[in-house]
Automatic annotation (TrEMBL):
SMART domains: PP2C_SIG. InterPro entries: Bact_Sigma-Reg, PPM-type-like_dom_sf, PPM-type_phosphatase-like_dom. This is Serine/threonine-protein phosphatase. It comes from Streptomyces olivaceus. Keywords: Hydrolase. It holds the Pfam family SpoIIE. Residues 169-384 form the PPM-type phosphatase domain. PANTHER family: STAGE II SPORULATION PROTEIN E, STAGE II SPORULATION PROTEIN E-RELATED. The lineage of its organism: Bacteria, Bacillati, Actinomycetota, Actinomycetes, Kitasatosporales.
Length: 388
């Protein structure tokens, strides 16, 4: 049995809380590593937090302007020789199907380091990422490591509802982010990809705090239930509309944009039921995609919803923003969605989709100036590659 297989088997046999111990022992034994450190990205995607038994024992490192952040951002191993020349540290990205989780840093003596080891060790990081994803069902260790501060209860509910922060397949790549990350209220996004389709929904539940989180949870799970029952996009909206109305009797509603992509053809079916809006970047031109506005979910309980259709082409980039993004005003009173959002989408065109939402939201914070964020802000970015 080769050493790579031995490490994989050891990780798969480990208890959920012992993954870092197992990978550390394996890297020391098989590769001569002197030190191993695992850091996971925090909810705000600003810092990398150490995975450790006692949280917050180790200072975080910022994603911007750090060696670990360089590996995290580029999604490539970053080799950093020690100034004394006796050791080499390699920072490896830990990523699962496009969802960037964190960085594994491995320090080894210079005489044990070889460039040929990099692909093999990166494969171990990929296996580690998969095992962390599975282990999170049974331990809080990795969830706690992602916290730079305490989450509000509403934010806890919203982050647990998300499928992830990014997803990548040959046909598409997408990423999303929410702010304020540690006190998010009613904004959310969801996706599911099958062999033939990608379904993407962006949701905004009205209200504040727990009420907004409960409302969004109900709507998202109602749409998931309908989707998993094999219902079409319009019927998913109808079922969620009925579920929200049955609970709130019209006193609360949920805005949602539902999209269903045919992975083979690029045909898209859309249901616009509220405030989330869509922009398209094609051939360096940014276009707002208008749809026929339909009623938000839960207002009457028997609203008929209809689909519209459009087509995406390879090379298209789509960006979806909540009203907390495009309705944010500058100091001069101009809404971000009028002109600034299009400029931001064009200026970030070279970034991969998982990095675009954070970049747009940082630009939004600068645009807003000193004014506090008085609403959730959500951005989802999708690059369409098409099926080859």
């Amino acid at each position: 049995m080769d050493r790579l297989t031995a490490v994989e088997r050891a990780l798969r046999a480990a208890t959920p809380n012992a993954l870092l111990d197992i990978v550390t022992a394996a890297l020391m034994e098989q590769y001569g590593a002197a030190r191993v450190e695992l850091r996971l990205a925090d909810y705000g995607m600003r810092s990398l937090q150490a995975v450790e038994t006692v949280p917050f024992s180790t200072e975080p490192v910022m994603i911007h302007d750090s060696p670990q952040g360089r590996a995290f951002g580029s999604q490539e191993p970053y080799v950093l020789p020690d100034p004394d020349g006796h050791a080499v540290t390699v920072h490896f990205p830990v990523t699962i199907r496009g969802d960037r989780m964190g960085v594994l840093s491995v320090t080894m003596p210079e005489d044990r380091y070889a460039q040929a080891l990099i692909p093999e060790m990166q494969h171990i990081c990929d296996v580690l990422g998969h095992e962390i994803l599975v282990a999170e069902r049974d331990t809080d260790l990795y969830v706690l490591a992602r916290r730079a501060a305490r989450l509000t209860l509403a934010a806890e509910m919203q982050w647990q509802l998300l499928p992830g922060r990014a997803c990548s397949r040959p046909e598409f790549s997408l990423g999303g982010h929410l702010e304020p990350a540690y006190s998010i209220l009613g904004d959310n996004f969801d996706w599911s990809a099958s062999a033939e389709h990608l379904t993407l929904t962006v949701t905004n539940g009205m209200g504040e705090g727990i009420e907004a989180a409960l409302l969004t949870n109900l709507a998202v799970n109602a749409m998931r239930n309908a989707r998993r029952a094999g219902l079409g996009l319009a019927d998913q909206a109808c079922l969620a509309d009925q579920a929200v109305y049955a609970q709130y009797r019209g006193a609360a509603h949920v805005s949602v944009l539902l999209l269903r992509f045919d992975l083979a053809t690029g045909e898209v079916r859309a249901v616009d039921a509220g405030s989330p809006r869509l922009w398209r970047l094609r051939d360096k031109q940014v276009t707002s995609m208008p749809f026929d506005a339909q009623l938000p979910l839960g207002m009457f309980g028997d609203t008929p919803y209809t689909c519209e259709e459009f087509r995406v082409r390879p090379g298209d980039r789509l960006l979806i923003g909540s009203d907390g993004v495009y309705d944010t005003a500058s100091a001069a009173g101009e809404m971000y969605g009028e002109r600034a959002l299009a400029r931001s989408l064009a200026s970030t065109r070279l970034l991969p989709p998982p990095q675009v939402p954070g970049a747009v939201l940082r630009e939004l914070a600068t645009y807003r100036g000193q004014a506090p964020l008085d609403d959730d802000a959500l951005v989802v970015c999708l690059d369409w590659n098409g099926r080859r």
